[in-house]
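Need FAD-binding FR-type domain-containing protein's 3D structure for a figure. Predict it.
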Amino acid sequence: MPISVAILKTEMVTHNVRHYRVEKPKNFHFGPGQATEVSIDKDGWRDQKRPFTFTSLQNDDTLEFTIKSYRDHPGVTNALWGLEAGDRLLLRDVWGTIQYKGAGTFIAGGAGVTPFIAILRQLHAKGGLAGNRLIVSNQTEKDIILRDEFEAMAGLETLWTVTNDPKSSLLQERIDADFLRRHVGAFDGRFYLCGPDAMVDQLRGTLEQLGADVGSVTWER
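Structure prediction for FAD-binding FR-type domain-containing protein:
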């Protein structure tokens, strides 16, 4: 049964990403990295469901979603961009397979970093980030989500790379086998992957070829 919740506040994160802070229903439980299907509680939109990850933590008073809006087509994320405090969303059952299983390398493409936000925030709150690395690929530097927050997390190693921003001083490389050999090196640890399906599929195969244990690679199934 969908639960209707009010948007309490929206906040800009990047030029096309916003935080949506919404009411937290009583006895609503979720874990870091988990998601729910969300729709807009308005006529014509209630049946249009999209999966979004919780980026708040369980003990927060409100729920938070960090959502990229694709403004070039008239879908749910584009409609979300027009919502403000007082508008309502519908939430459904909690699900998700990206759960923390131990220190490792988190690799994301673009908005694929969102399932990692709550995981890394919780580890940071507990002082348990040592040994974790975050590698994120974006098209441009301005697309990086929560860069300042991640870079301020004690114990977390961060590496940013861009694929379509020649003026940026960041790495200008795609995440492929050569990239992983140079920037990761050892493949006997854990890996967490999230991003476009094609990217995740390619990285899973590449990591296996480089010697990673299939059982040590976590992705959204």
